[in-house]
Amino acid sequence: MLLSDFNDDWYVVRERPTPDNGGKPAGPFRLPRDEMIGETRSPKVPAAHNNGYYPGGTYRYTKTFDALSSWKGRQVIVQFESIYHRSKVFLNGALIGGRPSGYITVHVDLAPYLKYDQENIMEVVADNFAQPNSRWYTGSGIYRPVHLLIGGSISIKPFGLQIHTKSLNGSNALIGMTIKTKSLSAEPVDAIVEVEFHLVQGDVAGPLASSTTFRARLGSEAKIDQNFEIDNVAPWSCNSPSLYQVTVRLKTLQGELLDTAVDRIGIRTVELTPERGLCINGERVLLRGACVHHDNGILGAVTLPEAEDRRVQILQEAGFNAIRSAHNSVSIATLNACDKYGMLMMDEHTDVWFVSKGAYDYHLEFEEWWERDLEAMVDKDYNHPSVIMYSIGNEIMDSATPWGIKHAKIMADACKALDPYRYTTMGINGILNMMFPADKKKPINDISILDNVSDKIPGAMMIKFLNLVVGALTGLMAHLSTFNAVDRKTKDVFETLDVAGYNYLVERYEMDMKRYPKRMIVGSETGAMAGVTTWPLVEKSPQLLGDFVWTGWDYLGEASIAGARYDRLPSMGHPFPAHTAGEPFVDITGYIQPQCEHSKTAWHLRKGRPYLAVRPLPLPDRPLAANIWRPTDAVRSWSWDHCEGKRSEVVVYSDSHKVSLVLNGKVIGTQPAGQAHQHICRFKTRYAPGVLEAIAYDDQGRETGRDRMQSADTSSLAVRLSPEKLELKADGDDLLYIRVALVDTAGEVRPMQKANISVSVSGPATLLGFGNADPFNPRGYHEGTRYLSG
């Protein structure tokens, strides 16, 4: 079945806690859309800092459309990629589908309820009123795209075309294909199946690479399995992400077209062995991973292809080659971008099983829905070469119990049955498992509590204390993670998985590789410095695949969990108006921060080239509070108002033998650099406007590279707008990101300058969001005025 756009002409009204616009629907508008990002934030909302102080609610969408008489006798399905959450879909007043999970595709059969050649009314209720139901910002409503699928009386099911590489020998590949079909008739039908492979060139399908035709017998529910070979293959890899467009046509024996399915694939193999590690097409790959939440910063949770494409490109520029979706099934747009750019993906199913982390989270529906939701995730991911692992959960406390271990095996086996060509993992926090009682009985959850949700909902979360301790008491947590009790409470669940996912357990890497020489380990979630400190061990240890830092891209919610803190006690999140987590790798606007450059240096991606950053003036005398997620507050600036002569601390990241710091032509000092010093030098000096340079040298005294910063001239500042591209597609979905900066006449940016900036848009375009990366932003992102800072 082919997808057609079903995103236009929708209306929405907020039903709880109070209707907006006097109960009148807003619209018409085009989906996808996040209702939460435009709501008024408040320190009194039940989920508090977890979702960035947004309230949430219940939203009813409506769309009126005509059903053509030509649709009679055909299969008509609407595909909602995701709705947050606890959705119900109605057609002409009849409840016809829905799903509790806010991250899984919803397919609804429309045909039995359609009124042909007349008006039909579709309604979708997204119920995000019961809070807290998540530990991060979720967004609300139909935040991912909607499509209509129309097939013949015999059709290929949604996600019913599944293709995998069985073997790859040189330029020859053996391809396995499964086609799942559905017929409206119980009578079997003989059909011709035509398959074509075209090598994708740019964004279009290029020349024919291979084709095959065969006969199949199709019943009411049929599954066709077929193998075939392709010669002169262009394999997919991180460095060369070649893609093929596959077109499958079902025809009658007389040649009448029954249905068509089209998808894109990559031909590649993935293997895991303790002797060679993770190999793609026989070549070892080390994971430089980023955990990434699903929101798009100032856009909220809305999923648009351009935003996801841009994010993957920026993450790749920042040095990452892998993403872990945290902690939910990732969007199709993100998978497409990862396929396109060669970014690997660990797709994660859920943050919760039977034991809750919030009063109204997915634990209420998990037992009834996990199997269908897991299958839907695998079906969505199956053809994407970027996906190499499925994670069945994150920091699941249940895994410390006998019944939880049993369920882990059931879920891992279910993954392998659905897709035997990828590997299973799970992010396990050993400290959490050690704390959780092994004799705790499996909870019996009562979904009826959702029928009695009061306006005042408890905001406590079971896991927040651990996050506080992990984030702030890093030395203590490192010590606790080496306890034998951690091994006792994790070893059995790790045996159910292909890859043991270690959350904040880097101190266990070496001891566990010796204790379990066949265990494959990945740092499924690690602190900001792990990519620096553990990389030499990753390079020499095939058992250790790499790590996924928390987080590669800053996100809404868990307000300022990683924000820079001075002279205050640690806490789990900042009070209102804290907004974003404040992570130090890539901020919510897409700006690559100094911590990325530190990791890139350790990953050998800045060979010989130093990188300069400066602790904000006048803060060098104030110690940065310990935080596993933010080891530095250094920024890329040498422009500071009224700071002449004040003490400053300059940070240089370098893999060279030594580094000299030069200010206005005068050598401030020289320090050793490289791996033995964690690729970092710290210089103390007095601030003076001008030119600051770092010059790196090898062990023979030869210069390997230099970096410089120059102070901006504050007497001549002007606003500079820098569009990230020059052409837009008039498709209703394209985006234009425009960077706004204050610069002097020479083009030097004044990054720390505060200024009120107002913007407006005229013509056939809409301002979707405007903001900066300040984690303490008191406003939302829908106003046209903003401080230019952060």
UniProtKB/TrEMBL annotation:
One Pfam family named in its UniProt record: Glyco_hydro_2_C
Region of interest: Disordered: 14-49
Matching SUPFAM superfamilies: (Trans)glycosidases, beta-Galactosidase/glucuronidase domain, Galactose-binding domain-like
InterPro entries linked: Beta-gal/glucu_dom_sf, DUF4982, Galactose-bd-like_sf, GH, GH2_Domain-Containing, Glyco_hydro2_dom5, Glyco_hydro_2, Glyco_hydro_2_cat
Chain ranges of the Glycoside hydrolase family 2 catalytic domain: 277-426
GO term, biological process aspect, one: carbohydrate metabolic process
Domain Glycoside hydrolase family: 720-786
Residues annotated as domain DUF4982: 645-704
Biased composition (Basic and acidic residues): 31-42
Highest taxon, organism lineage: Eukaryota
Keyword Transmembrane: no
Domain Glycoside hydrolase family 2 immunoglobulin-like beta-sandwich: 165-268
GO MF annotation: an example: hydrolase activity, hydrolyzing O-glycosyl compounds
Keywords noted in UniProt: Glycosidase, Hydrolase
Keyword Hydrolase: yes
Family classification: Belongs to the glycosyl hydrolase 2 family.
Identification of the protein by name: Beta-galactosidase
Native species: Filobasidium floriforme
